[in-house]
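Minutes, project check-in
Item: structure for the 246-residue chain
Input as provided by the requester:
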Amino acid sequence: MRILISSDIHANILACEALAKIYAREKCDLHITLGDAVDLGPWPKETLEFIKREKTVYLKGNHEEYNCSIGLGPELKKSIGKSEAEHYRWAKEQIGIDNVRYIEKLPYKYHIEIGKYNLYFQHFFLENGIISEYNVFEYGIDGLDLDRVFGIEPKKNNVIFFGHLHKAFVTEKINTYISVGSAGCDGKYSKGKLANIIEIDKNGYTIKTIELDWDTRAVISEIEKRNMPDRNAIEEYFFNSANAPA
């Protein structure tokens, strides 16, 4: 079985199109996207509609929470600025009520058992029933006990895929934890335009990191065209044209 795993598309339809090409080229059997497909980018509704058409396994991230009845978490409410709040309101208006209802029903977790292997998928760990508001950009995760916070019993053949951090790495203890990076962002808070493919059967697995091909400048151009709230900060931190090739 060959599974394409993406995360943090962030309302970037160009990333969706790139992922669809990879899915076809690599002859994948399944695409799982680990949440945060909405907000930040200029195409919130188009991105959601694309994911629904592709019949992707779509999991809830914190940005999906912001756009359904859960809303902003308590820590974010304390620190959010006016411009950022306006952006979240704008994105929810763009998405429309039908997609808000769709987001509401998304699961947080997905699990596949293949032979002796257990594959777990989620955006990030949960606290008090919502995505943790632990500040990963400020503190990193080196000090976190991943087995404890994810709540998955340590076993040699457990593999946990997650997003949220916008950078890719592997941490192997007893469980193996794989941060897949961001498919849809490329700024100060994001390292690369990335997705993973796992090829697995009952005897073993291999994981390949894929770099996506989409135009950062085209995203920024659309952000400006749509006069998107909080666009200056979003462009700097999540769609930085300085990272784009000349």
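Outcome recorded: The first strand starts at residue 2 and ends at 6.
No further action items on this chain.
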